[in-house]
């Protein structure tokens, strides 16, 4: 029942908050998001639907399990003080939730924020249906914090939309140069064959400057709203696809843990030191063909395999002896765990997607 989430990311003062004010018509109302030329948004602001205009503290949002923000408590009280919710009785918010983020300031260290900024961004990125990365003509340089952010967006390229805001502040020739410079800056960060969709316009309630490409800006604005509408319409399809993607990751993880466990059991003898044997396997899984065996014996893509370094941490927290082999996780009545997840990935979830397509209203 949760609504699609649209996340706004980008450098400071590029017009993220102004864009939300504009899309929701909050300008000149008591609840317009504060905007200005200096870095203004220091909080993560969640704009959602409610019967009347009101502000909700982050601590209250995290405590309310019905709102699905309770997992954010793990980032600490310092972060919850930087989280704010705004309820607005707006038709669009009945179908979508907006999240405004603090602007990226390249010369500021993470520690200065008082909470793990990148980890919090990752939490929202993992749950976002659409991610608007906003730039303006004066802030095209890519520093460490923005580079880190694009690394976190890896795998979510289909949800990213780049927005070149404040486009009517430039003459046509300048705008073309800035557009090229933006792609040149982002090319090393977005590693896909197809370039992301870029919207060029000025998203605020003022008239476009004269002597600029006003028709183009208006068409781009309409395209962006159509894009947003498409995400709302395809909400259920996106959720099922996300669940299937997650199921594939769970299956790969289960197969890898099973392989580590099988290798450990094969190498153990009566006189072996279990800890030393397992440390040897974790330090160099390639020596025991752990990852290669998964690729050879199952229909797993090598591009879906997780980072092998992650398993050092994983087994540091979860001792290998606490696991059972997948072949032992079967029962006569209940069947096998692995078969169930295979069936969900190959048949049940695709069938569910197909049934949605058949009954879909235009």
TrEMBL record:
Any Gene Ontology CC annotation: sarcoplasmic reticulum membrane
Gene3D superfamilies for this protein: 1.10.268.20, P-loop containing nucleotide triphosphate hydrolases
Domain Dynamin-type G per the UniProt entry, residue ranges: 1-241
Its membrane topology: Peripheral membrane protein
Domain of life: Eukaryota
Pfam families linked to this entry: Dynamin_N
Database matches in InterPro entries: Dynamin_N, G_DYNAMIN_dom, P-loop_NTPase, TRAFAC_Dynamin-like_GTPase
GO molecular function: GTP binding
UniProt entry tagged with the keyword Chloroplast: no
Keywords associated with the record: Glycoprotein, Membrane, Sarcoplasmic reticulum, Signal
Cellular location(s): Sarcoplasmic reticulum lumen; Sarcoplasmic reticulum membrane
PANTHER family found in the cross-reference section: SARCALUMENIN, TRANSMEMBRANE GTPASE FZO
Protein name: Sarcalumenin
Species the sequence originates in: Nothoprocta pentlandii
Lineage, highest ranks first: Eukaryota, Metazoa, Chordata, Craniata, Vertebrata
């Amino acid at each position: 029942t949760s609504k699609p989430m649209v996340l706004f990311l980008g450098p400071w003062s590029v017009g993220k908050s102004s864009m939300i004010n504009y899309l929701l018509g909050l300008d000149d109302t008591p609840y317009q998001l504060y905007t200005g030329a200096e870095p203004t948004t220091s909080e993560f602001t969640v704009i959602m639907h409610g019967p009347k205009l009101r502000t909700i503290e982050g601590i209250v949002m995290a405590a309310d399990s019905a709102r699905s923000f309770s997992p954010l408590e793990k980032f600490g009280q310092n972060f919850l003080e930087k989280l704010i919710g705004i309820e607005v009785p707006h038709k669009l918010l009945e179908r979508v939730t907006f999240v405004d983020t603090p602007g990226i300031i390249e010369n500021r260290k993470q520690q200065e924020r008082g909470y793990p900024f990148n980890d919090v961004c990752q939490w929202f990125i993992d749950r976002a249906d659409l991610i608007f990365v906003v730039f303006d003509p004066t802030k095209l340089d890519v520093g460490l914090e923005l580079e880190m952010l694009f690394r976190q967006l890896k795998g979510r390229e289909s949800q990213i939309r780049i927005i070149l805001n404040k486009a009517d502040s430039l003459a046509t020739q300048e705008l073309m140069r800035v557009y090229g410079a933006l792609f040149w800056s982002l090319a090393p960060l977005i590693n896909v064959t197809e370039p992301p969709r870029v919207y060029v316009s000025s998203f605020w309630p003022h008239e476009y400057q004269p002597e600029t490409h006003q028709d183009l800006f208006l068409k781009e604005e309409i395209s962006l709203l159509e894009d947003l509408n498409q995400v709302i319409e395809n909400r259920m399809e996106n959720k099922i696809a996300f669940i299937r993607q997650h199921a594939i990751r769970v299956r790969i993880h289960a197969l890898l843990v099973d392989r580590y466990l099988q290798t450990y059991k094969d190498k153990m003898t009566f006189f072996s030191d279990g800890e030393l044997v397992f440390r040897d396997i974790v330090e160099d899984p390639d020596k025991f063909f752990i990852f290669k065996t998964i690729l050879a014996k199952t229909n797993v893509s090598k591009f879906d395999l997780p980072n092998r370094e992650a398993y050092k941490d994983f087994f540091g927290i979860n001792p290998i002896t606490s696991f059972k082999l997948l072949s032992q996780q079967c029962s006569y009545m209940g069947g096998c765990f692995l078969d169930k997840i295979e069936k969900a990935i190959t048949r049940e979830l695709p069938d569910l997607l197909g049934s949605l397509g058949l009954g879909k209203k235009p």
